[in-house]
Amino acid sequence: MALTTVALIGFAFALDLLVGEPRTAAHPVAWFGTLVGWLDREWTDSPTGQRLVGVFVAVLAPLVPAGAAAGAVFAASEVHAVTGAVVAGTVLFLTMSLRSLLELTEEVVVATENDLETARERIRGLVGRDASTLSPAELRSGAIESAAENLSDGLVATLIPFALLAPLSLPAAAAAAAWVKGVNTLDSMLGYPSKPIGTASARLDDLVMWLPARITAASIAVAAGDPRALRRASEWARVPASPNSGWPMATLACVLSVRLRKPDAYDVNPSEELPTLEDGERTVTLVALAAAVAVIVALVFATATTILAAELETTAVSGVRL
Q1: CB-facing half-sphere around the CA of 149: CA atoms within 13 A
Q2: Closest by alpha carbon to 254, among 279, 278, 277?
Q3: Region for 54 from its dihedrals, namely left if φ exceeds 0, alpha if ψ lies in -120 to 50, beta otherwise
Q4: Between the N and C ends of the chain, which has fewer C-beta atoms within 10 Å?
Q5: Could you give the dihedral angle defined by the CA atoms of residues 199, 200, 202 and 206, in that order, rounded to the nearest 10 degrees?
Q6: Smallest Cα–Cα separation from 53: which of 200, 186, 187, 207?
Q7: Which residues are paired to 261 by β-bridges?
Q8: Of the candidates 93, 102, 81, which has an alpha carbon nearest to the alpha carbon of residue 27?
């Protein structure tokens, strides 16, 4: 099953690089977003009541994409094992996005040289901040911050659980990837202080993203050939409000030797200068290399799962014989 996992991860990446992210209206994440939008309403007049409703939303809503993914893989596997594997790989593809992240980051960075209006318009796909008054360097900072954070949210977070579970069960692996994507989507849509209904979703996302964020930070450091950057990054990783996004962000700031600043929010590695055009271009290369490192980490996890499962099976068989 380890070889199957390797093949499926390769299949998912090939689809991402060749096809790219499907149009928004056709993407299952958009369908889930429609459900979340329907849930995002005033169910009670009390903030406490809204938070209580939010607990049920956080627990139950991500089960919808998880159940759909598992059901699709299981049904396809009933037709043929290869069909089930293809569907599982497709689910992984739909829960990750690398090509669009790299392309959009590069578009923003290049546009900061002589087309600020385009840079300000395109960066809306990466960050939620008001870009109308940002300088070219601040626009590049926003793009770099988002590249680091979205590498974690949009790739590593779904890749790792898929790789861990695929050697054991493809429906479970697909369900795990879809569930994590559902949690991320809930947080991105509801996880704001102004939305009591999203409090539980934000807390759940913090928990789910703890490990992926740190794996992403380590992958960035390895990709840059600067593993000590993690130690330097630890000084700034907790500056952003999120307990997780600061790790890949600060690590990328340290390996690039740049300052990353969100006005009125945080200032990472402030002793350095804001990123230049060359720093932004290097970011695209580093994020792509870090994605490759993360894939290697995922395959190590898949191999470990396969070995452990084989050992447990051997032990069980031996016990029956005794």
Answers
A1: 20
A2: 279
A3: alpha
A4: C
A5: 140
A6: 200
A7: 267
A8: 93
Non-local (6+) Cβ contacts of 246 within 8 A are: 236, 237, 238, 239, 240, 266, 268
Report helix, strand or coil for 80.
coil
Buried b (16+ CB within 10 A) or exposed e, 129-162: bebeebebbbbbbbbbbbbbbbbbbbbbbbbbbb
What is the token pair recorded at 123?
């960066």
Identify the band that residue 258 occupies on the pLDDT scale cut at 50, 70 and 90: very high
pLDDT digits (tens, 9 = 90+) for 232-243: 999 999 999 889
Q: Which amino acid would we find at residue 110?
A: V
Mark out the alpha helices in the chain (DSSP H runs).
2-18, 28-39, 47-60, 63-79, 81-95, 99-111, 116-122, 136-151, 157-165, 170-190, 199-208, 210-223, 229-233, 246-256, 277-321
